[in-house]
Amino acid sequence: MKDYRSTLYVAAGACSYGLLATFVKYANQLGIHTSVLTFLQFMLGFLFLLAFNLVSRIQKKENIVIGISSKLKLTAWGTSLGLTTTLYYLAIQYIPVSVGIILLMQSIWISLVAEAVLLKKFPSKGKITGVVIVLLGTILATNLFQQDNNLNYKGILLGFGAGISYAMAIYASSTVEKQLPSSVRSQFLVFGGLMLIIACWNVTIIPHLHANALPWGILIAVFGTILPPLLFTKGIPKTGIAMGNIISSLEIPISTLSAMLILREVVSGFQWLGILLILTAVIIINVRTEP
């Protein structure tokens, strides 16, 4: 029963992330500026995690000592979260959400390339096969080489940049300062993301910060920076990292389906085939990985 619940926790976290871009684009269509949405997402998420950790510390009567170097390291790596969010939300201004999520998930193979270069760890044949399948699936899922795809290449570049940054964010979330509790690490990572968003958008935020934006900011904070870390923290330790990655790939079809139902985006059969190939590649890449 515990394993079943853990699987549901991870799946729920992935679905939460999958709905995020559709909510953002819908809010944009209502006139809510991206700068305000990103700011509120990280500000409210940070405040929640700060309060959550404070209450947990009081209840457990624990005094966790966090060194300045750990705080600075997590905050610095957390900027990748803010950069990913900014680039991704800008990308979906130019391209469909169903294409944006595919570009974001290029982090699957970017992470493997980075691992090979930085750690001198050459990927296995299974992982190389997985990368090839991801690239093939990407071509199909984005209609990249079809003459009538009408894709804005500024959006493609922003989406691919988000994929690179997402690979960095995944690395930070899974490896940086692992000795600390996950909720504490998330707090400083989200704080780093908030700092980058303030530096990036700065004075643009103020004129767009109005009462109509707050409900959307709360919704996006819940689905983007509050629920996923808590659900993944609760589920992945029991499912294992490999199975967690496989379950997390649910983010792709959920994002696509929500864009179809809420934004009325049209997704072709070839695009669904591409998504299926990418999901297959995630399984191939992770199935032999130790938890």
Please describe the topology of this protein.
Blueprint lengths: L1 H28 L4 H27 L7 H24 L5 H8 L2 H12 L6 H18 L10 H23 L6 H20 L3 H4 L4 H27 L1 H8 L2 H12 L6 H18 L5
Give structural notes.
It is a single chain. The chain is mainly α and 291 residues long. It has one domain (2-286). The protein has 13 helices and no strands. The chain has helices spanning 2-29, 34-60, 68-91, 97-104, 107-118, 125-142, 153-175, 182-201, 205-208, 213-239, 241-248, 251-262, 269-286. α2 packs antiparallel against α8 (182-201). The longest helix has 28 residues, at 2-29. The radius of gyration is 19 Å and the shape is globular. It starts with a helix and ends in a 5-residue tail after the last helix.
User: How many strands, which pairing sense, and closed or not: the largest β-sheet?
Assistant: none
Name the helix and strand elements from N-terminus to C-terminus, one letter apiece: HHHHHHHHHHHHH
| Through-space gap between termini | 19 Å
Work out the helix count. 13
Query: Which structural class best describes the helix and strand composition?
Result: mainly alpha
Number of strands: 0
Strand content: under 5%
Helix content: over 70%
Give me the Rg, rounded.
19 Å
Mean pLDDT: 84
pLDDT < 50 runs, ≥5 residues: none
How would the global form be characterised?
Answer: globular
**What's the number of structural domains?**
1
